[in-house]
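Subject: sequence -> structure tokens, single chain

Hey, anyone have a minute? Need the predicted structure for the following. Not urgent.
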Amino acid sequence: MPSFQTAAKAALADTQQRRNLAHATATIRGKRAAVVAEVEAWEELRVAGAAAKDEVLHHLPHYLEQLEENLTARGATVHWARDAEEANRIVVGLVQERDADEVVKVKSMATQEIELNEALEAAGIHAWETDLAELIVQLGHDRPSHILVPAIHRNRAEIREIFLREMGEVGRPAPADLNDEPARLAEAARLHLREKFLRAKVAVSGANFAVADTGTLVVVESEGNGRMCLTLPETLISVVGVEKVLPTFADLGTMLQLLPRSSTGERMNPYTSMWTGVHAGDGPQDVHVVLVDNGRSHVLADPVGRDALRCIRCSACLNVCPVYERAGGHAYGSVYPGPIGAVLNPQLRGTGSDVDKSLPYASSLCGACFEACPVRIDIPALLVHLRTQVVDEASGRSVEALGMKAAAWTFADHRRLEAAQRAATVGGRLLGDRTIRTVPGLGAWAQARDVPTPPKETFRQWWRRTHGDGAGADGTGTDGTGTDGRTA
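Reply:
Had a minute. Here:
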């Protein structure tokens, strides 16, 4: 991926996408504002949610061990994965051991992060997305552009064309008379997916929350496809980031008030599924949980940056961000777009690539994301923190760092400073009244600002010209007395 700024320029040229994003985010913002306003103690809920997540982050090993103990006691098998490669190897191995050549999937950010679908396909295993928006993205050979609504950049007409063109290639085709009415599009998706639900022996899910003191995993969704995946197959494999743990079942009550209001603008999710291990004769009898680190320990080690791990993937920050609304999600180069992606991706992946070095700058620092965040992640502060890291890691090679070194060398000796001032006046006389529009190495900075034109003479030169050669540049005479005769 190129830098965010480069990718965003290309995205801005897509006027249809900008219209789609503006309409969708405005609609979600309005719904969220209405349901949040109904809760008098909303700020107290935010504080409680942040406190629950901070408790986990400060004692993560303890709660992970408690979660593993309770999951194991209830018949589940727990696997630990240090990175994406190990997590994919575990899941692919489990599917192959069951002689399955396909899986149905619940929408999961963690599996997208580790690129599980690609790993399964490489092993000859078809992974079918069952969330409507994820299905649209998969059939369209596209990438998600939003945490909650992955196909937010598509409109109804585009979705109809995708269904008509692609569904028949991988299963039941879309009806020939399909139009772009939402009900008809949803019906086509249901008919297409139903045969996959009834046929699949293995399902893969993520989890919105994992409760340590009970071993309960929780998935919230709006369509019922998750419920089908979590109950029909014989084997269920859940891929869960280690930061998804909650200390107690009581904390779940707080989160289930914060999450639906912040994400979909609903008082509660239409479907909230919870499962605790294996229950004889009820649901999958072969339950596996893969706990994934994949850079989270690195984030946890940063006392400032670790706040990003509070995130409950509600997408509220995306829906209020003026940068995201115009650039869209693809420019962020990750499954995690928007403000939270701008602080989470560089920490999970490091700042070695162009896109990750640029993401901390993909913001105007307006602060809307912090006001919207249900667990009070101070994203603007994290962005500034990461910008500092990017500059420090440049080790003096960036234009900014080189400029600061040159300034320090110049200011360290008055003779150098005076020479630099005299040199600047030459430029000032040559430029006259013209404005400097660009500066090598500072193109983006200069595009938004007029660079001051250097003066035609320095203060010292002006003083000598207006007060005579007998006056020192600092206002004293050459004999040490002030120009009004007083002793300096």
